[in-house]
């Protein structure tokens, strides 16, 4: 029955709304409890549920046998209680009947062992049989529910970067086809793969094998191409699902738990983000449960930024921590996420599971339906979000600073001591801790409308990306590049020309090999360590790094040096190019050193400052009249306000000063 008092719930997702919800599993629970649960959700202020994920065979228990009647009731129950539904399109994991019908969809590991699908995500998303059935299921599901009044959005897959890569014969066949399309002939392939090395020249496409992962698994050029192939297949699969959704439900919102950067099958999501394949980009938000661990909150915020890229649409945290999270930590994370543009906090999960791998992963209610303290915390968040939602939320970051992220550089770093991702995370933390907005960008797609561009260990540099950096600096921007950047051509071979490759004249330097501080320090009679002293102007900065680049000035000014070794080594250089400045830091991204350089440039370029706040307090100007403050730390913080204000949450007059309790939040409305 569809309740006429709630004609539809899509108004819930409009601007000026902040949403709190839960992941709910009607296929894993007794229908007799659905109304009880929906009533509890409604009473707690939860306005969204996410349904359907990981449940393909509940809708299609046998090939072509679609059964939706049971789920119609679940949708209707949510509608009756005014709760919107994110309906996940549950095409991974695939049902066992599909594995039996088409064994080629299964996963084979690099050693040739077949993976029985005991665990989720053990299917080959590039397999044509898998895609055929997945798209048929997507078509039937979206046609049935596109006009249901409970529908808030469709979810496109779940954690698509998770699950093992398959090394099956059918994958090899498709990889060969991909290589033929990319290179055309064996001469081009052999040049790109440097196959003269170690006698690995390819005389026929049938001689191609699948490179194993890891430094010792195969030539890096081959690994990079194979991972690009896997990435293209994942994006092709997701695009095909999205195309069906857009055809059947052109006005429906789309979201996901888009964990594309999972270690097992990290793929390139940039094209999807810039193409707005998700109208509400989404992901799970899982910092540690500890209130003392603020780094994990920053790491989770980086997940939002790297999925959203420059997309202007609100973000949805389609999963959010419950478990044994310390009291208050979920609320703290919820407010932190608002400062990155989040609109939805959707707890994983409503009820502790009755069976399966997550039966002891604690939810908002226990196995017997009794509420836990996590439900109380989500209720508090929902109440507070309703109080503040009309004051400029969801927030849209207004960034003057960008950080370049590159898929190929993350894949190609394996022989280096530090990954591109880790350097990008350090850069993100450095900007975040200054209460400055920042965007993650793809250099080949972004217009780079910023004042500062950080290029952290971007190992692989294409001509198009190099041209983008060159043009950005020439028109007045500051590019800050860190060690290991611009080292490889796009095929994975090292630049033969002067490094930083394609940009040596922009940065005014030559980058040679590297040195290791722990070895050089032995020349001074010290036990080798990674400790590094950097003289930057009149400041002495202490940091650590396993290595640093050898830099020769070719016109650039030397701003800083590595000291206290056998001699001083240039560490930070700046070069005027056109109307802008190109800065090179010869160490991997480190908060101390990068932060010092960043502070100088933000002041010089008049970067829009965030609200003034003491260390450990996140702050954003949500509107000209509303500032959001969050204390990440375990001690009270006193904040000097720019003018008299009123606490929207506390309903207190604040004057010119706000005292935030440990881990507390406040939205200040100024007169």
TrEMBL record:
GO terms for biological process: carbohydrate metabolic process. Residues 24-387 form the Glycoside hydrolase family 42 N-terminal domain. Residues 399-598 form the Beta-galactosidase trimerisation domain. Keywords: Glycosidase, Hydrolase, Metal-binding, Zinc. GO terms for cellular component: beta-galactosidase complex. It is an enzyme of class 3 (hydrolase). SUPFAM superfamilies: (Trans)glycosidases, Class I glutamine amidotransferase-like. InterPro entries: Beta_galactosidase_Trimer, Class_I_gatase-like, GH, Glyco_hydro_42, Glyco_hydro_42_N. GO terms for molecular function: beta-galactosidase activity; metal ion binding. Its EC number is 3.2.1.23. It catalyses: Hydrolysis of terminal non-reducing beta-D-galactose residues in beta-D-galactosides. Belongs to the glycosyl hydrolase 42 family. PANTHER family: BETA-GALACTOSIDASE GANA (PTHR36447), BETA-GALACTOSIDASE YESZ (PTHR36447:SF2). This is beta-galactosidase. It comes from Glycomyces artemisiae.
